[in-house]
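Supplementary notes for students who missed Thursday's class. We covered one full example, reproduced here. Read the sequence, then the structure, then the short commentary at the end.
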Amino acid sequence: MATWNMCGVRQWNCSDTGSPAAKTSALRRLATADGARVLLLQEACSEDLEAARKGLGRSWQLAFQPYFSRDRAGTTTHVRCAGKGHGLAGFAVLSAHPLTSVRTVPSQQPSTGLQRGILCATLTAADVRVCDAHLTLPDGDAAHPGWEYRDDQLKALMAAVPGQRTVFGGDFNLDPPGPRNPAAWVWPSAAYRTYQECDQASPSSRTARATHASGHKLDYLFTGLPRIACTVRNTGRSDHRALLLEVRTG
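Structure (token representation):
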């Protein structure tokens, strides 16, 4: 399993992180050289992901959910990736295994601004439910800058996972819980107690390696399955590093 914010929407301060072709190549390397059979992706472009899927082979499947922008009048529109032929901006699950029961999970979103979300699917062959979440940035509501959405979004995510046979994560735009994190209250207690995070060193640990160029950990993979290994991979093609988790499903 992997999660990676590709920083593929060039107009979102991503123009200096590599071309779409370079990002697609890095994505294929995660799936081949690094062995990720399921990838949770954020800030990706629909046509670039489709090109990557085709390049990986006919068995690979893609579930894509676009972002929406909502203005003060309540009008909602798709966000298009800059440049010709890249399609819509969104987040996705890319899998070497068939995906079933694909659905978006309803969650609180800003009244004005970018609408991100949660996307879940089942890997039927392994009987594992996976969920990809991209949470709202602090002050992400232009009409209500002080409103917090990540607590409700995490509650919705936790309610969507079926039990131990799950892997869920993505870009949470949130530091791990701890005394130095003023937003620690946002975290539901079950996240680290019922499940284990990819880079969680012990049941009581809440620290982990940074996944963002700022030096913060913003990207997560939680599971109830036995963990085998956790890797933080700098692809060189995003301001986020990829997080790779190996689990035992049998």
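Commentary. The first strand starts at residue 2 and ends at 5. The longest helix spans residues 20-31. If anything here is unclear, bring it to office hours.
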